[in-house]
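Shape is hard to put into words, and the shape of a protein is harder than most. The fold becomes a row of whole numbers, each drawn from a learned catalogue of backbone shapes. The outcome of that step, for a single protein, is printed below.
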Amino acid sequence: MPLEMARAITIPDSIGSSFDHGAFDATTRRVFVAHTGRDRVEVIDHERGCHIATLEGFPHAAGVVADAGQVLVTNRGSASLAWLDADTLETRGVFDTAPRPNGVALVAALDLAIVACIGDETHHAELQTIDLRTRERRTIGLPGRPRWCVTDAAGTRVFLAIRDPSMVLVARLPTLDDVHHWPLPVSGAHGIDIDHSGRRLYVACDEGALIEMGAAQGQVLNQWPLAGSPDATFFNSTRGLVHVAIEAPGLVQSIDPSTGFTTRFVTASGAKTTALVPPDRLYVFSASHTGALDLLEEP
């Protein structure tokens, strides 16, 4: 079940730059990516296979998530969260956050944003929920540096990867109570995604392992080695594969959890972030390739 190149898409001013998280919005069929090195958000039309817009004014853009025609962007450089319209590309609102917001999730049906903030020397790490309509906010402190986060299908719980101590923090939404800490057997929880139907979490850890956990109780079910320290992690529910981007040496490692079968697609050093486009495409963002690699997932 390997990945193969479908096409390359040029993103302007990419040489020598850097990208962070990417996301696909099924409503507009657009891919959004944080162009961190240029303080921008880039927009790709998936159907046409081309770059269509550069959005300015996102200081050190980091996390991007999209759903139901909405896009959220965390700006580490300005301690803020931006809420965008995926169709018009206009900014609907900007919300202050704790320092260095990173991971982000969206419950579109509730207009609810979840933001994981790293903090700084004067402010501890925090997890925040923000009602995008009323601006009502809830906050809890975190036991360590937050990475990526996802929610369950109903939007009733958030699962947040914490680097050290390596764990998945679970909290009820939108109140951020009923908190649980699920420890991991390897260090550096980083990328995370969820299999909603199978009720499984997949957590890629810096120590070089992908962990499969039960999403109900947090029991560790399986573990597979990775070729390096991972970053963006996506589970494709259509094909049942987990795709993990590895910055160095530069590849995407794809694992079938049902068999443990693994394949690798070589990208380039620094290509640490991806965006899944169901049912069978994976975008890899690479400054060395001056944009995005659109990969096809073979059946």
The chain has one domain: 3-297.
